[in-house]
Amino acid sequence: MSDALAFPWLRAAFFAVVVRPALLLGFGLGVRHRERLPQVGPAIVVANHNSHLDTLLLLSLFRFGTLRLVRPAAAADYFGQQPLVNWLTRHLIGALMIERRPKAGERADPLAGLSAALQRGEIILLFPEGTRGQPEVREALKSGLAHLARRHPGVPVIPVALRGLGRALPKGEWLPVPLNLYASIGEAVGADPSDKLAFTQAVEAELDRLDAELPAALWD
């Protein structure tokens, strides 16, 4: 199945008519350093992950002219099982499905789709923790980001710290709570991805530094 966007106009309309108004009307949104978001690809944008709202918020930060290039990663075993959810995830969210659990006997490359997208000049959204953790707690980053960055050493990796989304829509909940949401965009990480540990630690340190810049939330 092709990973190219089949209905880019539908995706743009969805974010213009549904997502952005919902975020503006339902939540207070504070953004620091929005100008650091990449406007052209290839690029890798990474963020902490607490909520299904994370992807929608990140996508809503990009200009409409850039949105067509931005492709979030999504777990095929979670979002690809039900036909309707699969279709919405691929075509409205624009996600690239990642096979985290290859079938028995297969040697699938889980990063192949992301690498192909970077080669097409797209911007990847990645949550290196791998899953949604406890509300407002960042878990250790998995090694997939370092492996992807090592394959594409000239591609910038830009961290984004998110706060509030794990309280507004935590894991296991489907009804969002109208709380203030925050995002802080960092500079591209300068560490060498060939040193997996040092690179991962540099990304984690930048995420923590960006998080410390954000205002205290209501529950702090």
Structural class given helices, strands, pairing?
alpha/beta
Low-confidence stretches: none
Shape: globular
In total, how many domains does the architecture comprise?
1
H/E element sequence: HEEHHEHHEHEHEHEH
CATH architecture: 3-Layer(aba) Sandwich
DSSP strand tally = 7
Order of adjacent strands in the largest pleated sheet: 1-7-6-2-5-3-4
CATH topology: Glycerol-3-phosphate (1)-acyltransferase
Distance between the termini: 45 Å
Backbone CA Rg: 16 Å
Question: How is this structure best described in words?
Answer:
The protein has helices at about 10-25, 55-60, 65, 75-80, 85-90, 110-120, 145-150, 165-170, 195-215, and strands spanning about 30, 45, 70-75, 95-100, 125, 155-165, 180-185. With about 220 residues, the protein is of the alpha/beta class. A seven-stranded mixed sheet has the order 1-7-6-2-5-3-4, with helices on both faces. The chain is globular and about 45 Å long.
Write the layout of secondary structure elements.
Elements: H1 8-26, E1 29-32, E2 43-47, H2 53-60, H3 64-67, E3 70-75, H4 76-79, H5 83-91, E4 96-98, H6 112-119, E5 123-126, H7 144-151, E6 157-163, H8 165-168, E7 181-185, H9 196-213
Parallel strand pairs: 1-7, 2-5, 2-6, 3-4, 3-5
Antiparallel strand pairs: 6-7
Helix pairs in contact: 1-2, 7-9
Annotation keywords:
single chain; 220 residues; alpha/beta; Glycerol-3-phosphate (1)-acyltransferase; seven-stranded mixed beta sheet; 9 helices; 7 strands; 37% helix; 15% strand
Brief characterization of the structure:
With 220 residues, the protein is of the alpha/beta class.
